[in-house]
Amino acid sequence: MMTHTNILLNNMCEVLNGICNVQRGIDRSHGPFTPTTTTLLDQMKRQTQKHMCIFNGVKTQVITHWGDQFIVSLDEKTCKCRHWEITSMLCSHAISAIWDKIKLGTKNVPELEQWVHPCYWLVTWAEVYKHKIEPINGRLMWPIITSRQKHEERYDHTFALPRSPEEPEKH
């Protein structure tokens, strides 16, 4: 049966182009994160300049310039804005809390990058996309197949659920 559209070919091309674009992005990046992650984190870092932190020994209360308040728990990796839990990417409130802990002289506080989930790391992307798709020759160089074989697949079209051994057959 011949197809009448090129949807499958188009989808395969889109996937291949996507892989090529990701590889170009990996090659151009110069930090620990993917380009989009770097941009988003930079935006979050800029927002932290307007935050004020109050640490109570366990959790940090972060007050924004609008007067909104969010509770951040670095031990639980949570913020009441829920951005951190949903995306596994630091929110501006969490960044403020981390920087506040560092500023207060707390020892053994991991660097900011260590708080971000590994799925946003460039090394993770490089590992995922390390397998390359090898190029192939054009159609003119493909071997010619002289016989067309039809493969009939047999399907069992029964939709009844299997009976248990104890259940008698109904007629």
UniProtKB/TrEMBL annotation:
Coiled coil (residue ranges): none
Pfam families noted in UniProt: SWIM (PF04434)
Keyword RNA-binding annotated: no
Domain SWIM-type: 70-102
GO MF entries: zinc ion binding
Record keywords: Metal-binding, Zinc, Zinc-finger
InterPro entries: Znf_SWIM
Protein name, UniProt field: SWIM-type domain-containing protein
